């Protein structure tokens, strides 16, 4: 992966060249004093500046330094990995390279117990992510680290403080939106952060963020505010062709749980007429199964059979397949409508 020019033991830079000679008697011919003479170069003979210079490898480009970091880390030398990554950042010629180095530094800082540096690297990634998933995966990593190391309270306090100073701090809002969902499991609070992000997007003229709006509706669903969730899903279905069938399915589920059976059936029939769109195809089993259950509840035999059969084809767990077969048996027993 890299051109490793030298290794640096903890006691200093020592170069040892030895020849193993297997001839009888020769191994005893070399005295301990002679062995010591071969390796008599020590850090005491070097000035402090010379030692520091030799102990810090010089890299010619980003890739060399970045690759070295992984070699050091594999060897368990986390501090050397950190130094290599810092060199990589200095040598980077593209924003993506810096983002890659900071993303790797997140775990390196955590292993060294440096909370602040870890959070700083996360913030750099969120602010300079080349694409959304790059940031979300990094936030997910920090969420997991915070839980594992018991840094949850510190993480919460850091970003709440940032938002007190600047309520429109996008990075802090994005991080806290994920934190409240994945760590705190506070769905109502997550909804508040999403509302702030949606408002900020509108103020800044950002493009429509369909997934963020879907997540906002999901917050209401999780807090069992089904009517509000249904209305949000229906609103998104009118804004996005790709998400329309998925949102209509979700709206049907929420209307049913809100007790509005007429709206539930209307939304389910609309989703059925469209067929699964791009967003629904992320989980065809879920889409078909949700509609199938709803149609069965409403005694819509043909629609129920259609979607249970489709769900059975998409199911990848035996328990799900068994459930679909049982529901199909019930649906087939219904009287023809």
Main traits of this protein?
337 residues; mainly alpha; 17 helices; 70% helix; disordered N terminus
Oligomerization category of the chains in this entry: single chain
Number of strands: 0
**Main sheet, how many strands, which sense, barrel?**
none
Instruction: Determine the number of helices (DSSP H or I, runs of at least 4 residues).
Output: 17
Q: H/E element string?
A: HHHHHHHHHHHHHHHHH
Percent strand equals: under 5%
Low-confidence stretches: 1-54
Radius of gyration using CA atoms only: 30 Å
The pLDDT mean sits at 87
The structure class reads: mainly alpha
- Please report the distance between the alpha carbons of the first and last residues: 67 Å
Give the overall silhouette. elongated
Helix percentage: over 70%
Question: Could you walk me through the main structural features you see in this protein, from its secondary elements to its overall organization?
Answer:
The protein has 337 residues and is mainly alpha-helical. The chain has 17 helices and no strands. It has helices spanning 32-38, 48-55, 62-74, 78-91, 95-111, 115-128, 132-149, 152-165, 170-182, 187-203, 210-222, 226-237, 241-258, 261-274, 284-297, 301-314, 318-333. Helix 13 runs parallel beside helix 15 (284-297). The longest helix has 18 residues, at 132-149. It is elongated. It starts with 31 loop residues before the first helix and ends with a helix. The relative contact order is 0.04. Mean pLDDT is 87; it is low at 1-54.
């Amino acid at each position: 992966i890299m051109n490793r020019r030298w290794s640096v033991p903890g006691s200093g830079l020592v170069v040892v060249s030895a020849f193993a000679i297997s001839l009888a008697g020769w191994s005893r011919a070399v005295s301990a004093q002679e062995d010591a003479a071969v390796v008599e170069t020590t850090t005491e003979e070097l000035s402090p500046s010379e030692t520091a210079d030799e102990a810090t490898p010089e890299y010619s480009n980003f890739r060399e330094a970045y690759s070295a970091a992984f070699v050091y880390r594999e060897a368990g030398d986390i501090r050397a990995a950190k130094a290599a990554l810092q060199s990589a950042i200095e040598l980077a010629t593209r924003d993506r390279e810096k983002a890659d180095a900071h993303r790797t530094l997140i775990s390196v800082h955590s292993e060294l117990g440096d909370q602040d540096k870890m959070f700083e690297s996360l913030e750099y990634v969120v602010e300079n992510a080349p694409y959304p998933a790059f940031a979300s995966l990094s936030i997910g990593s920090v969420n997991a680290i915070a839980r594992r190391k018991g840094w949850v309270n510190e993480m919460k306090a850091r970003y709440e403080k940032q938002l007190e100073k600047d309520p429109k701090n996008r990075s802090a809002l994005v991080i806290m939106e994920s934190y409240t969902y994945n760590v705190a499991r506070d769905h109502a609070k997550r909804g508040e952060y999403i509302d702030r992000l949606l408002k900020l997007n509108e103020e800044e003229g950002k493009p429509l963020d369909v997934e963020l709006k879907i997540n906002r509706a999901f917050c209401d669903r999780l807090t069992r505010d089904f009517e509000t969730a249904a209305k949000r899903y229906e609103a998104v279905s009118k804004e996005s062709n790709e998400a329309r069938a998925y949102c209509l399915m979700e709206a049907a589920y929420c209307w049913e749980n809100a007790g509005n059976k007429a709206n539930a059936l209307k939304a389910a029939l609309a989703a059925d007429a469209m067929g699964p769109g791009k967003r629904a195809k992320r989980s065809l089993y879920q889409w078909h199964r949700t509609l199938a259950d709803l149609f069965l509840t409403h005694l819509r035999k043909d629609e129920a059979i259609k979607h249970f059969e489709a769900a059975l084809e998409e199911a990848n767990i035996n328990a799900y397949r068994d459930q679909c077969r049982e529901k199909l048996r019930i649906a087939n027993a219904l009287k023809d409508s």
